[in-house]
Automatic annotation (TrEMBL), chains A, B:
Gene3D superfamilies cross-referenced by the UniProt entry: NAD(P)-binding Rossmann-like Domain, Winged helix-like DNA-binding domain superfamily/Winged helix DNA-binding domain
DNA-binding region extent: 25-64
Protein name: Redox-sensing transcriptional repressor Rex
Alphabetically ordered keywords of this record: Cytoplasm, DNA-binding, NAD, Repressor, Transcription, Transcription regulation
Family: Belongs to the transcriptional regulatory Rex family.
Function: Modulates transcription in response to changes in cellular NADH/NAD(+) redox state.
Matches recorded under InterPro entries: CoA-bd, NAD(P)-bd_dom_sf, Rex_DNA-bd_C_dom, Tscrpt_rep_Rex, WH-like_DNA-bd_sf, WH_DNA-bd_sf
Domain CoA-binding positions: 88-189
Domain of life, per lineage: Bacteria
Pfam family, one: Put_DNA-bind_N
Organism: Rubripirellula reticaptiva
SMART domains: CoA_binding
Length: 218, 218
């Protein structure tokens, strides 16, 4: 066994956001290494794949109780399992998507979710020409059915890809249906009870961050 | 004049990434306030709109040399101008997009970019059925033409929405065409010269961050 791990337990580990982001990247690259038939990886190799130093890799992984062996490194399969446990990817998460415009359509077709344990159970829209269609295996239902669908088939997470002006109303309805977390692509800040987790992805803001990085480098 | 500003100069301001992200959100909400005909805003109102404390708003804005007046607040139009200067949104940025799959298609149709000064000059793909089409006013050209197009019409930024296996090659070609920054949606880490800025958006990682947040809240 090329690495030693402390026994995993059910207590959640408290990790800062940047570490969670890095774990998610290690996880992605480890899957790729596993597909290419490799058995072990060291902190230098893993660091190189995600552009961080070997010391950061070792610190992140030791926070999970996983310690690489000098000259041998980490067992890839065990590391995937451990990171998956911590990130919740070992679990199956039910996800609904609201808003099947071009972005929602792209998200339904995105194949990266399922591999990580996220299962899209339904999509919702209010446009007659979208309702009733099936996109990448997911049914598009009338947004009026959000409550009745989730009462019958509860989901933990929702992806919100509606225009900004509808986001607050839809988010409130989802929270009323016991959704615990929202991945929000609508360019607006949602006001939700503290028990509901939100991750915002604002595409224009990301391009602005890039433009800022370029300006300061000049 | 409801606020005092230090004269803007051309030296870039050094801001940490989270502050840049917040400025981008203030900027978005200020545009909305301006549309609703408001003239002034105070740090409490602005903080409420983006879920941060008034003290954080005041600190972020004073880093730009912008100080609100007690009881009056900030002049919205001037604040937009100042944040836009800092974020580079006052500038016009030429942007090309590579990869017109469903995500690339959604990004071309996304209306948030133009308002912030990002102008999509062309999109590139290698699929015969996409080449020659026009999406949201942007021509889709053969990816073989990236070099000749950018030689004739230089761009500063590129949006990369190709499958992971093509990302490294396309990124190298874009850097060879003097692209200064890449917004990377491909689920892979790019290795680029340090002078090239990269912002990565990994959709599956965002959902993983959300799942992690829920687990630790339970």
């Amino acid at each position: 066994m090329p690495d030693r791990s402390t026994p995993s337990d059910d207590k959640p580990i408290d990790l800062p956001q940047p570490a969670v982001g890095r774990l998610s990247l290690y996880y992605r690259e480890l899957h790729r290494l596993l597909e290419s038939q490799q058995g072990g990886v060291n902190s230098q190799q893993l660091g190189k794949l995600v552009n961080v130093s070997p010391a950061v890799v070792r610190r992140d992984l030791s926070a999970l109780g996983t310690i690489g062996r000098r000259g041998v490194g980490y067992d890839i399969a065990r590391l995937i399992e451990r990171i998956g446990d911590v990130l919740g990817s070992g679990m199956q998460w039910k996800v609904v998507l609201v808003g099947v415009g071009s972005l929602g359509d792209a998200l339904l077709r995105y194949r990266g979710f399922e591999r990580l344990g996220f299962q899209l159970s339904a999509a919702f829209d209010n446009a007659a020409n979208r309702i009733g269609s099936t996109i990448a295996g997911v049914r598009v239902l009338d947004a009026a059915l959000i409550e009745s669908f989730l009462a019958a088939e509860p989901a933990e997470l929702a992806i919100l890809a509606v225009p900004a002006e509808f986001a607050a109303d839809i988010a409130d309805r989802l929270v009323g249906c016991k959704i615990n977390g929202i991945l929000n692509f609508a360019p607006t800040t949602l006001k939700l009870p503290p028990k509901v987790a939100v991750v915002n992805v604002d595409l224009a803001s990301e391009l602005q961050r890039l433009a800022f990085a370029i300006q300061t480098q000049k």
